[in-house]
Amino acid sequence: MKKLLPFMKKYMKYAVLCPIMMILEVLADIIIPYLMALIVDVGIAGRDVGYVVKMGIIMIFAALFGMVMGIISSHYGATAGYGFAAEIRKETFKKVQSFSFANLDKFSVSSLITRLTNDCNTLGQVAMMSLRMAVRAPFMMIFALIMALRINAPLAAVFMVTIPLTVALIALILTKARPLFIKMQSRVDRVNAVIQENLVGIRVVKSFNRQKHEEMKFKERNDSLRDTALKAISIIIFFMPILTLITYATIIAVLWFGGKQIVAGTMGSGELLSFITYITQILMSLILLTFFFMQFLRGSASAARIAEVLDTETEIVEID
Questions:
Q1: Is the overall model pTM greater than 0.85, yes or no?
Q2: pLDDT in tens, 211-236
């Protein structure tokens, strides 16, 4: 991926502003549960309507501020990400134009098409996610954890079990998913190869009545791609219910121990509500990081394939 970073130079302004806006959105999301706790424990408990209204207005402005920052961040992230992909695609196409016949024999036409389309698109998505999701998730998790510790440090001890368990599960999933994502790229190459061969030679195929043969060849490669994709998706399908179970188990544990503290008078009802919100934010951040790393694995495979083209020395030498 380091070899491709210079292609972001043209869009560096957007690449810098996007994470800044994202952090501001995270701060707005973090402050809202805290304001909610104040409304319940101070305003409603003290029957202070004016305080409730004031905090409610602040919450609305915080939500609007977060929404605006999120919209701007999304726009900047998309501009930088897909602009990055466009620059890579342009340079890769330029490189292919300089190839000799020997160079072209090294890469099949279908493989080059896949690299210029699918791989470049994947890199654009990874770049956009790196500027947004890869920034939002860690900051959200850190800020939410700080707020949870600030509200009730002893109750936050539940994270000592939840977070390591979730991280271990994520590591296992990524280990299983990586080879499948790499294999998917080669399967796409094979599908594109049979499509390209068939369309280029469609007159020959029809002349010799070979439609059924070509259909069977395409079916074999298409089914192979489908099966590989299903294996990769099945890992996510298996992962999500387990993570959901961990999330609800954590909330139940917090409600149990937090409820006891409310009865004892050492914790407010609003604090418990905001604490649960911060738990959800932390665990959802881990889910976002998981999806980012899965996409990053696909992106690393695509980056290697693009770099292979860019690093190929052409055998055609221009003489002035």
A1: no
A2: 787 788 888 888 888 888 888 777 77
CA distances from 240 to 169, 196, 244, 313 (A): 11, 38, 6, 45
Q: Write the pLDDT tens digit of every residue in 146-165.
A: 888 888 888 878 877 887 88
Ramachandran angles phi, psi of 45, nearest 5°: -65, -35
Tell me what pLDDT residue 28 has: 93
Please state the three-class secondary structure of the chain as a single string. CHHHHHHHHHHHHHHHHHHHHHHHHHHHHHHHHHHHHHHHHHHHCCCCHHHHHHHHHHHHHHHHHHHHHHHHHHHHHHHHHHHHHHHHHHHHHHHHHCCCHHHHHHCCHHHHHHHHHHHHHHHHHHHHHHHCHHHHHHHHHHHHHHHHHHHCCCHHHHHHHHHHHHHHHHHHHHHHHHHHHHHHHHHHHHHHHHHHHHHHCHHHHHHCCCHHHHHHHHHHHHHHHHHHHHHHHHHHHHHHHHHHHHHHHHHHHHHHHHHHHHHHCCCCHHHHHHHHHHHHHHHHHHHHHHHHHHHHHHHHHHHHHHHHHHCCCCCCCCCC
Q: Please, which pLDDT band fits residue 74 given cuts at 50, 70 and 90?
A: very high
Mean pLDDT of 256-271: 83
> In Å, what is the CA distance from 61 to each residue of 48, 185, 219, 289?
20, 46, 55, 28
* Residue written as token pair 């998730």: 137
